[in-house]
Design a protein that fits this description.
The structure is a single chain. It is built from 31 helices and eight strands. By secondary structure, the protein is mainly alpha-helical. It has a four-stranded mixed β-sheet with strand order 5-4-3-6. Strands 1-8 form a two-stranded antiparallel ribbon. A two-stranded antiparallel ribbon has the order 2-7. A hairpin with a 7-residue loop joins strand 4 and strand 5. Helix 17 runs parallel beside helix 21. The longest helix has 33 residues. About 1% of the residues have low confidence.
Length: 760
């Protein structure tokens, strides 16, 4: 033992043994990583968005149009409903009994008063009925004037004699002989006419308006004044005028003369103002309080077995809103917390499912965010569409199922679509039967969507989902004892939306492929078209490499399909796996003609660099021409980190021939840079490429020799660790080898030699 070595004690050696960390320790370590925290943060934000979209703090509506409840729906709390009919009747009554507004023009009454005073002065100027002031006789006009002041005779009474008229005239003059009497008369007339001038006179009772009151406005008044209709009617005003004169004048005969003159002279001074009346009616209508009908707690709102109409939905909505208004903040917080835990559980289930089946969806942040975007958009669409009697929710759900079936494995697609439907069902209060009706066609679209090789595939899946939707709706409707015709109509609507989803997915397929960076069989068929510019250039520059690629594609496709891998993807990848050789085609044996081998002038190390370079050159060409990353991966991985054995052996031989003792060739300098195959398809392509190249060296490719060759190459790459990262099992390698043997045997099959035929 050297002096620098320290001897450890037994306890130190025991303490140095570290056991693998447990699950909780690994989980705690992962939670400290920034990438994990970022993804958890996005998940928390998404859960918050779902809570907001579904208003998880309030209970959802459990009713929708044309729903047929199995039992009576009763009021959960007392609430009121606006009685529109009663309210309209009350407003109509208010308009009908609103005061009409009239414009008053007192000028005719003022003129009448002035004219009467002037006539009295004229009558007082005459000394006697037969003569004027100087003994002259009254003219005809004055005689007629005096007759206007005579009270009307009772029915059947004789005409007044001249003596009686003269005596009455003299008493009239005597009653107004003094100036004070005339001033008192003028004052009396002003007092009697004041209410008439203020409120005016109305010819007849108003129609379609308040029959008891009205509003009078004039230029001298700022606001209309209310008065009774009875007091302003001309007939009533005439009667009131006589009483007022009798009360204010002590001389009843003088009062009768004035009343006889004024009564027939009174005329209407009020004119209806239509615009002001309508404004008054509008004001009275606005003052009417709405009439409500009260529903007590427990009162039946909708009967069982009857489809809910729009009126029923309106009534149930009022009860629902009243129930929400009575909820406390603690109740809302408690329900939101429960919903958040439910959504978090669904997210955890999806996360575990993706981690096991499609881990790349979690590792790639772009794919992770896009998945959340699709999920939230689907839930939002379901929330908006729920409550209609048309099953529109099926369209976003089936679209999501098809999208995930294209982008991920079926296991992941089923888990995610089921979780999305569960979250939406919790958010909108969907019943179990409704959720099953939505789940059945959605799951059908996921299960049936395997390989999209034709444009009609998505439509066919849509038709299949539509058939499942019809069967699910009818069967559950029968179990719930729903009416046949509404159930049949609902099933047809569900089928229609499934077909719409299939058509939309057909149009959106290129967008889905680009967004999720996946290649369906349809796009692979288009990509593998021999007229592709890169393949055409490969034919022109390196025809031998092109023929080699075509043969490898045929071998690899059959081998991949034998283990359940994507044969079409392997075939298209094989078409492009050697496109890097077109930059230096003469350095590869399949393209060399009679000009000899160009490697004869190069040292083994330089030849190795030229050979290895075709991998990087091919990847650069693929990216420049915007080939999908899955094809670029085939180019980079089809040689893995294998050894360029031919030139490595040459280098060893030269080193030995040079006689340089102690020197060895660095093997790493003769290996491809990799990476090793990361998928089963890449592993199949690697083995197919090696087998096809090596089979060309067989002098007599009999089935036994082919089988021996395939087994040797498989064993060599297996021992070299080339299949360690692609997931190929030994059983799958055995199946791949059997397929390659079968295909190569068919290629190099024997032929019958015809008579006279010579060997070339």
């Amino acid at each position: 033992m050297s002096a620098g070595t320290t001897t450890r004690t037994r306890s130190q050696r025991v303490a140095s043994v570290e056991l693998p960390r447990g699950r909780m320790s690994r989980l705690a370590a992962d939670l400290q990583r920034g990438a994990v925290l970022l993804r958890l943060g996005l998940a928390v934000l998404a859960i918050g968005a779902i809570l907001a979209m579904t208003r998880a703090w309030d209970p959802p509506r459990d009713f929708f149009l044309e729903q047929t409840p199995r039992r009576d729906i009763v009021a959960a709390t007392e609430f009121q409903q606006l009685d529109e009919r009663a309210t309209e009747e009350a407003r109509e009554r208010a308009r009908r009994f609103a005061e009409a507004v009239y414009d008053n023009d007192p000028m005719p009454l003022q003129q009448l008063k002035s004219k009467v005073l002037s006539e009295i002065d004229r009558l007082l100027a005459a000394k006697t009925l037969e003569g004027g002031a100087e003994g002259e006789e009254l003219d005809t006009g004055d005689t007629e004037l005096w007759k206007r002041y005579q009270p009307p005779l009772a029915e059947g009474a004789p005409e007044r004699s001249g003596e009686e008229l003269r005596e009455r005239f003299e008493r009239f003059q005597a009653s107004l002989a003094d100036e004070a009497d005339r001033v008192a008369l003028s004052t009396t007339l002003d007092a009697v006419f004041e209410p008439l001038e203020t409120f005016g006179l109305l010819a007849r009772q108003p129609v379609d308006a308040n029959s008891e009151r009205l509003l009078v406005q004039s230029t001298s008044q700022e606001t209309p004044q209310a008065t009774s209709v009875r007091s302003v009617l001309v007939d009533n005003a005439r009667a009131e005028l006589g009483l007022a004169l009798n009360q204010r004048l002590t001389d009843l005969e003088l009062s009768q003369h004035l009343y006889a003159r004024l009564r027939p002279a009174l005329m209407p001074t009020l004119k209806l103002n239509d615009s002001a009346t309508r404004a008054q009616q509008d004001a009275r209508e606005a003052e009417v309080e709405p009439v409500f009908r009260t529903f007590e707690e427990g009162e039946t709102l909708a009967a069982a077995g009857e489809p809910l109409s729009e009126d029923d939905i309106e009534l149930l909505e009022l009860g629902y809103q009243q129930r929400l208004s009575e909820r406390s903040w603690s109740q809302r917080l408690l329900r939101a917390t429960g919903a958040a835990w439910a959504y978090a559980a669904l997210v955890a289930v999806c996360g575990v499912g993706l981690y096991r089946a499609d881990r790349e969806a979690l590792l790639d942040l772009r794919s992770y965010g896009l998945l959340w975007l699709c999920t939230l958009a689907t839930i939002a669409c379901v929330v908006l569409a729920h409550g209609q009697a048309w099953r529109v929710e099926l369209t976003p759900l089936v679209l999501l199922g098809m999208t995930l079936a294209i982008a991920y494995r079926h296991q992941s697609a089923l888990v995610i679509t089921g979780a999305v439907l569960g979250a939406a069902a919790i958010g909108v209060g969907m019943s179990l039967n409704d959720a099953l009706v939505l789940l059945a066609p959605t799951a059908c679209s996921v299960v049936l969507l395997d390989a999209v090789r034709h444009r009609s595939t998505l439509l066919i899946v849509g038709f299949a989902a539509a058939a499942v939707a019809i069967m699910a709706t009818l069967s559950l409707g029968v179990l719930e004892e729903q009416p046949l015709w509404p159930t049949l109509r609902l099933s047809l609507m569900a089928a229609l939306w499934c077909l719409v989803a299939g058509a939309l997915m057909t149009a959106a397929l290129p967008v889905v492929e680009r967004a999720f960076r996946v290649q369906t069989d349809l796009s692979l068929l288009e990509l593998g078209d021999p007229t592709h510019p890169l393949l055409q250039e490969l034919i022109r520059r390196a025809p031998g490499t092109y023929n080699h690629s075509i043969t490898v594609a045929s071998l690899a496709e059959a081998a991949a399909e034998s283990i359940g891998a994507r044969g079409l993807l392997v075939r298209v990848g094989a078409y492009f796996h050697d496109i890097g050789k077109m930059l230096k085609p003469g350095y590869f044996i399949e393209n060399q003609g009679q000009n000899g081998n160009q490697h004869d002038t190069l040292v083994p190390a330089m030849s190795t660099l030229v050979i290895i370079a075709h991998v990087k050159d091919g990847a650069d060409l693929a990216r420049q021409n915007k080939l999908p990353e899955c094809i670029v991966d085939f180019i980079l991985q089809h040689h893995g980190t294998t050894l360029v054995e031919y030139f490595y052996r040459q280098a060893q031989q030269r080193t030995e021939a040079d006689g340089e003792p102690g020197e060895s060739v660095d093997e790493t300098a003769f290996r491809y840079p990799g990476p090793k195959p990361q998928t089963k398809e890449a592993g199949v392509l690697m083995l197919s490429d090696a087998v096809e190249s090596a089979s060309r060296t067989l002098v007599e490719p009999t089935p036994a020799r082919i089988e021996n060759l395939v087994e040797q190459l498989t064993r060599k790459r297996l021992d070299d660790g080339q299949f360690d990262e692609c997931g190929l099992t030994l059983q799958e390698l055995q199946r791949v080898g059997a397929s390659l043997i079968k295909s190569l045997t068919a290629v190099y099959h024997g032929r019958v030699k015809y008579p006279g035929q010579e060997t070339a």
